[in-house]
């Protein structure tokens, strides 16, 4: 039986993603000491967490999620492992699969994630790559649903660099049926391959260069840091290009009166968002961060419940092949 990988939102069908979110909502409603009856995770299951980049939310939420599911986790960095001395990702996947029940990888190169999944015989989860951050956007969709109801038919505005998180918002537009408007500098707009995929999937994704036009009548306004780990360009130049896309009072005024503000964090007040907005009444960033725990608990439960796996929802070798075939250019970012 193929392992259930969680590699990208676009690699899984809508019904599977919907089931994961429904489980996350149910887990949160039941409280942290209780789980829905249908969760079937072996007690004592072990999660290996390979983090090539620093992390607060992703690391802590996965560790706590695994603990609350009745399992345990092992934190690893390249310096702790032989991959730091040249062992291949494929060999690392083969070995870890003999020891643990699932693997989370947080890396700067998406190809490493695909190679790990291609050779692992246990589920692999994308904890962030330079191309996408699916766990984050699943938590964002959950947060929207808590605050405003169904996200289907809603309008989401993304302002700033069309980075890895923005790419997962594009994937989500196709799977969850919301309209996405991206306001980006020309230099930092989405790559053509991503937009072509969205069009082929029938997603409503529009790209412009006017932040106020992007935010107009939006139900949710989202942004991210202007400089991420791995961004090799001149920081002053990046900030200069992105300054007009700062989310401030005027941008939020262009959105609907009851619009919410999201940011995956960490945030830099005075750069991509003003303190007035992120600390104001429309901000839901702390609920958004909290929901990383609930979503990742549901993702782990889905990945580890092999009894419910099926070819249509496994997201294993087939999704790896699709991801590799996209030929998406490298984008850098870390949360």
Spatial ordering of strands, largest sheet: 7-6-5-8-9
Helical segment count: 13
Order of helices and strands: HEHEHEHEHEHEHEHEHHEHHH
Overall CATH class of the largest domain: Alpha Beta
State the fourth-level CATH superfamily of the largest domain.
Aspartate/ornithine carbamoyltransferase
Number of domains: 2
Q: Largest sheet at a glance?
A: 5 strands, parallel
Low-confidence parts: 306-334
Share of β-strand residues: 5-15%
Could you tell me how far the N terminus lies from the C terminus, measured between alpha carbons in angstroms?
33 Å
Multimeric status of the protein: single chain
Using the CA coordinates, give the radius of gyration.
19 Å
Shape, principal axes of CA atoms = globular
The CATH topology of the largest domain is what?
Answer: Rossmann fold
Percentage of residues in helical conformation: 40-55%
Average pLDDT number: 90
Task: Give the strand tally.
Answer: 9
Named CATH architecture of the largest domain? 3-Layer(aba) Sandwich
> What structural class should be given to the helix and strand makeup?
alpha/beta
Layout of strands and helices, then pairs:
Elements: H1 14-30, E1 46-51, H2 57-68, E2 72-76, H3 89-99, E3 102-106, H4 110-119, E4 124-128, H5 134-148, E5 155-159, H6 164-176, E6 179-183, H7 192-200, E7 205-208, H8 211-215, E8 220-223, H9 235-242, H10 249-254, E9 260-263, H11 275-278, H12 285-304, H13 317-325
Parallel strand pairs: 1-2, 1-3, 3-4, 5-6, 5-8, 6-7, 8-9
Helix pairs in contact: 1-5, 1-12, 2-12, 3-4, 4-13, 5-6, 5-12
